[in-house]
Amino acid sequence: MVTQWTDGQTPGLRRLQGPAQSFPGVRSAVRARRGRSPGARGHDGEWGTGAGPRQVCARAALGPRALLAAAWGVLLLTALTGAQRGRKKVVHVLEGESGSVVVQTAPGQVVSHRGGTIVLPCRYHYEAAAHGHDGVRLKWTKVVDPLAFTDVFVALGPQHRAFGSYRGRAELQGDGPGDASLVLRNVTLQDYGRYECEVTNELEDDAGMVKLDLEGVVFPYHPRGGRYKLTFAEAQRACAEQDGILASAEQLHAAWRDGLDWCNAGWLRDGSVQYPVSQPREPCGGLGGAGSAGTSGGANGGVRNYGYRHNAEERYDAFCFTSNLPGRVFFLKPLRPVPFAGAARACAARGAAVAKVGQLFAAWKLQLLDRCTAGWLADGSARYPIVNPRARCGGRRPGVRSLGFPDATRRLFGVYCYRAPGAPDPAPGGWGWGWAGGGGWAGGARDPAAWTPLRV
User: What φ, ψ does residue 250 adopt, rounded to 5°?
Assistant: First the structure.
C-alpha cells in the first residue's frame, strides 16, 4: 500500500500536534524507539536521503553521451529537491502498521483533601485514524523519587488490579474509549505527590504526569527533647505520630507565602533542610544576608535552604503537613485545671482522645477553631489556636500558640480532645459533667450529687 503524507513524516514518527500542545503534562517525545537518526538529514537541513554535495565537472572533459546523462541527472535532482522543499513525500507503509500512541494529562495539578475523592485525568489517542483500543495496557505509578516508582494500578483489557494501600480505593473512570483516568477514593496524606499515567500497545507507549495536591496546613515540630534533635527518619516518625507527614518543599514555600515565619531549620520530604522567614531579622538570615543558607523568595524574606543534608547523622526539627479532619477537635475546661494524666482520662470519658498537634493545626486552619485558652495535647505540649487575634491572646497574627512542654504532673491546664466520626456528641448546649471533688473528671463511679457541669 502506498500512502502520501504532506508533512514530511511517517505515521510512527509524528509528534503531538494541535490542541494537545496546551497540556504541559504531555511528553513531547515518545520513547527512544521513535527517535530519528541524525544521519538521516540531508545537507539542506531537511529530513531526506542524506545525499552529499553535488559534484561539478568541466564541460570540456565530457563527451556527448556523458553530457546527456549529466543533464538528465540535473533534472532529476532538481525535481527531488523541489519535492523536498514542498515537504511532500511518498512513503511506503506496511499493511496493519499502527500510528503512535499519545497520552494527554491535565495541566497544572489537581487538588483534594484527606478523605475526599479525586479523579486523576488521563486520556490517550492514536495519531493514525481507525485504530482500536484493544490490547492496550494502562498503568498508573506514583513517583517516589526521580528514579523510584510505586505501582498504583494496572489494567489490561478486563483485568484490573490495584496495589498496596490503593486496593479498594483506586479504579478506572471508564468514560469511553481513550479514557485512562484514575478515580482515587478516601484520599490519604500519603497520596500527595506526582503520578505517571502510562499507556502501552504492542509497539508504542507514552506517559504523562499528574500532580495531586492536598488542601492542608504546614506546621513546624520538635519533640519534648528540644530543638534540633531529629534525624531524617526520626522526623518522619515524629510527623506521623502527630497526624501528619513531612512537608514537601512546595508545601513549605506555599506556607511561607501565606505568612509562615519560623526561625528554626527543619527536614522536608525530599531530605533537604529549610525554614521560612516572612519577617526578616538578623538571627534568621535576614537584613544582611542568609549566611550559609540559600534563599528563595526575596533578598531578606523567603525560604532559607541548607540543601540536602546527611539524613542519618545531622539533626534538625521537622516541618510537617496535615490535611482535613474527618472528626472534630473540641476543648474541655474543668472547674480546676488538671495535670496531663487527668486530661487524658477526661477525653476518654467523652469517647475521644487527646488531640495531636497536627489535629489541632488542622482544626485551626480548616475548621476555624479559635480558643484563647491553653490545653494539653497528646505529645505533652500545651497549645491554643487563634483565628481572630486579640489582646492577651499571644500576638497580632493568627496561628497556634505554644507554651512548650510543661511539667506533666505539676502544671495544670484544660485539654483539647479529638472525637472520630461516629462517636457520640457532647451533651446538648455544649455542657459536659465533671466531678468537682479533688479536681478529677467524670468517668468513674462517683456520687451524681457531687457532679458539677463543665463548660465544653
Answer: -65, -40
